[in-house]
Amino acid sequence: MLNRRSVLAAGGLAAGVFGVPQLLAPAQGHEDSAHGEHTFQESKTFTGTKPEIVPWTRPMPVPPVLRPLVSTAKQEIYQLSIERTTAEILPGLQSPVMGFGGQFVGPTIRAKTGRKTLIMVHNKMDEAANIHLHGGHVAPEHDGHPKDVIEPGRTRLYLYPNTQQGTTLWYHDHSHGTEAAHVYLGLHGAYVIEDESERALNLPSGAYDIPILLRDIQFDDSGNIVVFDDPSKRTVVLANGVPQPYFEVAARKYRFRLVNSANQRVFKLRLTGDKITRIGSDGGLLANAVETEELVLSSAERSDVVIDFSKYPIGSKVVLTDAVAGEILRFDVVRRATDQSRVPAVLRPLPAMPLSTVDREVDLSFVFKPNDRPDGVINGKVFDMDRVDFTIKRGTTETWLIKSSDPTGVKHNFHLHLVQFRVLERNGGPPLPSDAGLKDTIPITAGETVKVQATFTGYTGRYVYHCHFLEHSWIGMMAQLEIVP
């Protein structure tokens, strides 16, 4: 069980994550105002010896694109289920999981700027769930607020206006008290918005534009999925739901939309013998293409990258590695192909920042109860859906100072719903390369400070902001803002 001692030791975890070990033991539940009123069990799948994962024996699947039921002049209408299903994560074995559309890694939804997306979501499970479009500019009733759940057997409509520029988003469960388990068990998928100005840049597209959702997972010695334990034990890394897969590529440029869909891992990615060209962040294209030797992605962050395989001979093997997990994905160059795509040095200038008129502070931390069990808190308060923590006037530009009063080195992660922000400073100096562009999610380590600026245009209503290490938000590290006219 997590206690004060484990918090003090957490800063030294090599995996760059802060563990919440054994928050729920098998077949036990937890109930209070911060944590919800739901019971989880570890998935009991099969018995026997856990099979060995042999690298590069299975291909990386590309999640299918969800097809609309109806396409009109102004919108696409989709149907999507939430259901319990099984997936072959370990070779030859079927594990119980949850999936949008019955898939472990849900289908990719591709939208266009200026065309609405209407999704009819039917919950086939025996417990409540919902959908949050992470990074989406949507009305509060369609944001997947923790209280706005879809009860078992019911259907809910989500309307996404897609007024923002082209970007890589993702969708996942955000139900109160159950989000950590549901996302871990598979309720997540990619959501891509495309716009004409981006298309004019002639970046790799079509079959050469691939979403890759990266995450980690833990199995016990019998091969059962372990839902809640120390996250440093989640040593199996999945690319689109498969451990250490290969992906066959042509000798040309590819655009990969990388999504960190892990509950609480920071990936530090490198490409063997080459640099990665980064072109996009959470909120869309960067101002300029940037070559980097290491790409850092905290939980829920996205990064669009281009890899040019034309420099490699046919038969080459190019491996994507992580600083902790090691080799996680291999690209096999198997054929030649014509390529008229390009990566312009100048991509899309970032918008000018309006004058900020309000300053706020957000402190992510843990507090301990008499039983030595922690609550996650923001500014000293555990999440309460009936409490508004910040009231914001619509159209206002604000500067938020994000910090943590936890012991130095403890990891957190900050996500703001509804709007993207710009990182102004980190520790009083310039932002990190990973902070560039329009952001909605950033890592924050205790002992650091990060200053961000956001403009709250669009809708009025209630939205949440929280640590996106989902076991942290699950135990209360979430707060609520209300935008007023």
TrEMBL record:
Protein name (Swiss-Prot/TrEMBL): Multicopper oxidase CueO
Family to which the UniProt record says this protein belongs: Belongs to the multicopper oxidase family.
Gene for this chain: cotA
PANTHER family: BILIRUBIN OXIDASE, CUPREDOXIN SUPERFAMILY PROTEIN
Annotated signal peptide: none
Gene3D superfamilies in UniProt: Cupredoxins - blue copper proteins
Ranges of biased composition (kind: Basic and acidic residues): 29-41
RNA-binding found in the keyword field: no
Organism: Lentzea flava
Subunit details: Monomer.
Keywords: Capsid protein, Metal-binding, Oxidoreductase, Virion
EC number: 1.16.3.4
Catalytic reaction(s) noted: 4 Cu(+) + O2 + 4 H(+) = 4 Cu(2+) + 2 H2O
